[in-house]
Specification:
This protein is of the alpha/beta class. The protein has helices at 12-22, 36-56, 69-75, 89-96, 109-118, 142-150, 164-172, 182-185, 190-204, and strands spanning 26-29, 62-66, 79-82, 101-106, 122-125, 156-159, 177-179. Strands 1-2-3-4-5-6-7 form a seven-stranded parallel sheet. The radius of gyration is 16 Å and the shape is globular.
Length: 205
Amino acid sequence: MVTDPAVAARPLDQIVGECVAAGVDLVQVRARDLSGRHLLAHTEAILRAARHAAETGNRAVRVVVNRHVDVALACGADGVHLGFDGMPVEAARLCLGPDAWIGVSAHDTEEVAAAHAAGADYAHLAPIHPPLSKAASRPPLGPAVLTEAAQTGLPILAQGGVTAENAAACLLAGAAGVAVTGTLLQATDPGAATRALRRHLTSGR
């Protein structure tokens, strides 16, 4: 689950709690319009909600912070997700330690291979389909590129236009999982949307 305050109809910590309780196991906190103490407070609220829902439901969840290594350190998040213009993976690893989850955003197989060589734990490959939560800025990659990127050996989360209906196909093409924003944040019932997505992911495996 990739958060976006601009898309959420309700407080994000509430939605995140519902989605983690229903099966989300990785939350990326993304809030491009926040910085400093406001981003820290926002991240702490999401982190509390995610971990409370996981503990209550006897589930596991990881929470990573988009781009901001300092915020990840300050709030005790599980790692960081780096954009194309972010800190190098190697530098983030030095800051966060060997057990942190470090992900990267990638748009082709070459970027995935470079992330793998740098020591990333996973990559978001996007857009597989036209995005649901924002206007498309790149042509969709489709399943063939997803298959090619997965052959690098780095776990790939398919991102961009992923729904319950096409999630299984992403796994069949080689993805280790999916990364979604609009499918959950724009849902009338985010918990039900999460459960539907997990059912299709299970069938894809």
